[in-house]
Design a protein that fits this description.
The chain has helices spanning 26-31, 57-70, 105-119, and strands at 3-7, 11-15, 21-25, 42-51, 81-87, 92-101, 133-136, 159-163, 169-174. It has 178 residues and is α+β, with helices and mostly antiparallel strands. Helix 2 (57-70) packs across helix 3.
Length: 178
């Protein structure tokens, strides 16, 4: 991603936002798809925020709407949108779509991340963290919550797997007593 710095006969030089120079062969540009994020004067910022199943959707939408109104860089037209985007494993995900001038895109993106975190502070809302339990396999096989049996690895280590309430594994870690 970057701005075209120079177009030469065999390649194009792109300058990235962090001041790197990228050289792209023109054959790739002529045979590929290019997305120009700088061509239009406005851009839509898509943001997703998770709230707990315990939280009121209407209240969360109201808070998000207030944050949108407070930021003068967010345009009134097209009108900002807030939707329930998904019922995830541990949260209800809200999709926020706002329009900004292209030059304000990243400033609005990062400001909204911070402002939403502060507005959804503990005591005001529950943080939707995956509920996880830990089960260790000590010797041979063990059945856990109706899941398939596990056995010790060849090294004899006792694995510990984090399980969601539904029983799917997040990531393997080692038991603390190794």
């Amino acid at each position: 991603m970057g701005r075209v710095h120079e177009i030469k006969i065999f390649n194009t030089l792109i300058k990235t936002p962090d001041n790197k120079r990228v050289i792209i062969p023109n054959s790739l540009l002529s045979n590929g798809c290019i997305t120009n994020i700088f061509a239009e004067p406005t851009r839509r910022v898509d943001l997703t925020y998770g709230i707990s199943y315990q939280d009121a959707i209407g209240k969360a939408k109201e808070i998000l709407g207030e944050l949108i109104k407070k930021d003068s860089r967010i345009l009134d037209a097209p009108e900002p949108e807030i939707y329930v985007a998904a019922h995830a494993e541990s949260s209800v995900n809200l999709l926020v779509r706002v329009w900004v001038n292209s030059g304000d895109y990243w400033q609005v993106y990062f400001a909204m991340q911070e402002q939403v975190k502060l507005a959804f502070a503990p005591g005001k809302h529950h943080h939707p963290l995956p509920a996880a339990g830990c089960a260790s396999v000590y010797r041979g096989f063990r059945r856990l919550n109706g899941l398939p049996k596990y056995r010790l690895g060849a090294s004899g280590q006792r694995p510990c797997r984090l399980l969601s309430p539904a029983g799917s594994m997040f990531s393997p870690v080692h038991s603390p007593d190794q």
